[in-house]
Amino acid sequence: MRSHRIATRALILYALFGIVWIVASDIAVDLLFPDAGILIQTIKGLLFIGITSGIVYWLARRLDASTTMQRAVLEASPIALFSIDLEGTVLTWNKKAEELFGWTSDEAVDKRLPLVPDDKLEEFETLKEKIAAHETLSGIEVVRQRKDGSLFDGRLSYALISDENDNVIAIMASLEDITAQKEAAAALADSEARFRTLVESAPDGIFIQVDHYFAYLNETCARLYSARSSDELLDTPLLDRIPPEDHDRILRRMDRLLKDKEPIEPTEETIITLNGERVPVETTSVPFPYKGNDAALSFIRDIRRRKRFAHERERLSQVIEQTSEAIVITDKKGTIEHVNPAFERTSGFDRDEVVGQNPRIQKSSHQDKAAYHDMWNTISNGEIWRGRLVNQHRDGYTYTEDISITPIFDAEGNIVNYIAVKRDITHELNLENQLHQAQKMETVGRLAGGIAHDFNNMLSVIQGYTELALGNLKTDDPVRDDLGEVKAAAERSATLTRQLLGFARQQIIRPEVVDLDEAVSNMLKMLDRLIGEDITLTWKPAQNLWPVKVDPTQIDQILANLTVNARDAIKGRGELIIETSNVTLDPKDCKDKPHLVPGDYIKLVVQDDGTGMDTAIQKQAFEPFFTTKSEGEGTGLGLSTVYGIVKQNNGFVYIDSEPGKGSTVEIFLPRHEPLDIHEAKGDKDVTDAQPGNETILLVEDEESLLKLGQRVLKRLGYTVIATTSPHEAINLAEQSQNKIDLLLTDIVMPEMNGQELWQQIKNVSPETQALFTSGYTSEAALQDSIVVQNESFIQKPYSATSLSEKIRAILDK
Q1: What mean pLDDT value characterizes the chain?
Q2: CA atoms of 652 and 269, how far apart (whole Å)
Q3: Residues 6+ positions from 88 with CB-CB distance below 8 Å
């Protein structure tokens, strides 16, 4: 550079010297050497040539330096720079152009390159038209082609190059490769589009608040606030959508978020929609710069459905916890995960004892393996199993449950749990067994009652004619002894029928208000004789025992039968205890005793230390004709009679016994109150039997008894009008010339009962008295106050003497 500057200065001095010389030489020659013109001109010519050459040389050096500088600038440019003429011939081509297009400068300069793709030639022609019109362009996006044929996106700018006539002869172009920028912009645009789509289609509401105003809301958020679009809420106060009582708390929380730049954990809040509805939501907020402001980005979720489900789950949980059915939830392997309180009450196990255990801890030996195998196969196949299992209580005893086990599936259809609903049906089964037993007893009772009725009629005939025959025989007649045996057998048979009727609850009873302690005390001497000297009888009466209303003879029957049974069970030395007490039973006390109902009772207990009974025998103990005694030693009617009498008096009887530990019979008779003085037992005034002369209307549907009655009554001196038909009896009463003094009728007859017949007879003869008789009677007749409470009844079979006494007692009142 330094030599260049020196040469330039020398050239300038040389030129100035030459110019001065030429001018000076012209003046000197003219003045000093007027004849040396040719030489001078020659020298001047040489000087001019030298000066001109110097100027040219200087200009060339200046131009060369400028070109070098220009080329250096072009080559150093980070953008592809090149110039082309209007025909497309490349004039200049810098390094960046080589890198961008792939052609070297030597390959490009003075060449027409296929820089424009074929499908963009029309666009290039338009560009040429703009160039011709002296239009310049800056930063237009174009597509260009490389040497290898690949395309790229570029940003093109160009300047026009014109000649001295201002005609455009070429352009200087700059081209920047923007392929990466466009791809990045496209990716950014795609990302933004996806983000916007994501935000707008998000299931949760999203909003941005600036200074407690809505600055942005997605559509989900707008819908949550019941807005038609987000525009309805933009730039409105956030506090307008929050209950007033929450304003201060929300403001403090948002101020803390903006100050500390810490996210707010999810919390449950309440919002107010544009419709005024309060909606529970869960919100989460984070700091979020928005358009140069400190803002908060909030996510809001509608939790109405979740809270409803939570409420339903809570309610379901309460149902599970409070239901009377035992519920057990296990995993798919059968391990217990949860039990409810009903399970604890039923099984005796605490929840902590069974959680983590297998339900087989309740397995009992009373259940066969086949039931468990069937149960597991059924539920493992995804089906509901229903059945009945005998399970073991924590205390060791067994109980029966009706069970339903249901598989629980997840969303993919896999079994994840089993839920068992169990109900203890032990009490129901006991009641069912009791019902079957009662039905069986009722059936047998009806049969026994029917047999006893017919048998009583026959016994009445046997006893009656035996008495008549005895009355016709002399005292020393040997036949009297034979007839006496017949009469005794008939009386023993009558006792047997009374037992059957007692069991069947079909005997006529005359209940009275009774002091049970007194009734037992009156029987003690007879009971001592029954049990013998080897057995000690212990009597434990209660204090201030409540009264009961019962036929006193039935108490005697109960005590006699239970005492004889106890004597036979002891078989040698032992003890018999009779005890009474007042008891008041509540529902809990009645739980283990089927049919027993809460209330006040007088409890009679007969306890022995005999051989006892196992469970099977206890179940049959009250059945008629059932006995464990040897043949000929018992009728099997003792306990069945007790059962019938107790039931007839609305009471309950139970046996508690164990082999080798004796037996205890508990009888519960309902307390009778208030005590009516008219119900008290009075002394009977029985008139001595004697003949009579009154007229008696005898009505008996059994022909043999009718004939017997006629003979007995006529022998006693009565006038007898006899018939087997109640309707005929009414006709005979209407036609009778004699006054009808007494109606002697069976209670149970085909056409009408005895009570109804008496009412009809009194319409004809109002002063007619009545005496009713029966081997048994229906429940309806038993409820009749006149038949039950008065002395107007005689039980079949009866003797002639007892009949005459009864008749005189009524007629002589």
Answers
A1: 79
A2: 65
A3: 112, 113
Residue 144 · residue 116 · CB < 8 Å: yes
* Inter-CA distances, 261 with 33, 246, 247, 251, 267, Å: 104, 22, 21, 15, 17
For every residue of 113-144, DSSP letters joined together read: ---S-GGGHHHHHHHHHHHHTT--EEEEEEEE
With beta carbons less than 8 A apart as the criterion, state whether 420 and 475 touch.
no
Would you put residue 340 in left (φ > 0), alpha (ψ -120 to 50) or beta?
A: beta
Nearest to 331 by CA among 408, 440, 442, 446: 408
Task: Check: pTM over 0.70? Answer yes or no.
Answer: no
For 609-714, list the strands marked E by DSSP.
Answer: 652-657, 663-670, 695-699
Residue 174: phi and psi, rounded to 5, are -120, 135
Local structure of 204: helix, strand or coil: coil
CA dihedral 685, 688, 693, 695 (to 10 degrees): 40
Own/partner long-range contacts of 256-264 (Cβ < 8 Å, ≥24 apart): 257/285, 257/286, 257/287, 257/296, 258/287, 258/294, 258/296, 261/287, 262/287, 263/287
Backbone angles phi, psi at 313, to 5 degrees: -65, -40
**Coil, helix or strand at residue 514:** strand
- The count of C-alpha atoms lying within 13 angstroms of the C-alpha of 17, restricted to the half-sphere facing its C-beta, is 9
Closest CA to 664 of 593, 613, 608, 616: 608
Q: What is the tens place of the pLDDT at every residue in 439-490?
A: 666 676 667 666 766 777 777 788 778 877 877 788 778 888 788 788 777 7
Angle at 25 between CA 23 and CA 27, to 5 degrees: 75
Tokens of 22: 């030429």
C-alpha 128/C-alpha 67 separation (Å) is 27
Q: What is the pLDDT of residues 368-414, one digit of tens each?
A: 788 888 999 999 999 999 998 999 898 888 889 999 999 999 988 99
Are 608 and 576 a contacting pair, CB within 8 Å?
A: yes
Tokens 């309950």 correspond to: 652
Closest CA to 568 of 522, 602, 534: 534
Q: What is d(CA 811, CA 694) in angstroms, rounded to the nearest whole number?
A: 9
* Contact in structure between 243 and 270 (CB atoms under 8 Å): yes
* Top-confidence residue, 645 or 328: 328
**d(C-alpha 380, C-alpha 205), whole Å:** 44
- For residue 197, what are the CA distances in angstroms to 184, 218, 588? 19, 10, 68
Residue ranges in 323-387 assigned as alpha helix (H): 341-347, 351-354, 369-380
Task: State which amino acid sits at residue 289.
Answer: P
8-state DSSP, 687:
P
pLDDT of 685 > 80? The answer is no
Q: Are 235 and 252 spatial neighbours (Cβ–Cβ below 8 Å)? A: no
d(C-alpha 745, C-alpha 23), whole Å? 194
Residue 700's CB is within 10 A of a number of other CB atoms, namely 22
Structure tokens at 460: 């009445």
Residue 166 main-chain phi, psi, to 5 deg: 65, 25
Residue 110 and residue 92 in contact, taking contact as beta carbons nearer than 8 Å: no
Comparing 434 with 557, the larger pLDDT belongs to 557
Residue 492, SS3 per DSSP: helix
Q: Which residue has the higher pLDDT, 787 or 494?
A: 494
User: Is the Cβ–Cβ distance between 528 and 567 less than 8 Å?
Assistant: no
> Half-sphere exposure of residue 201, counting CA atoms within 13 Å on the CB side?
6
Give the CA dihedral 433, 435, 440, 446, nearest 10 degrees: 170
541-575 pLDDT per residue, tens: 988 899 998 888 788 888 888 888 888 888 778 88
Q: Residue 49: its pLDDT value, please?
A: 47
pLDDT in tens, 155-203: 988 888 888 888 888 888 889 888 888 888 888 778 777 777 777 778 8
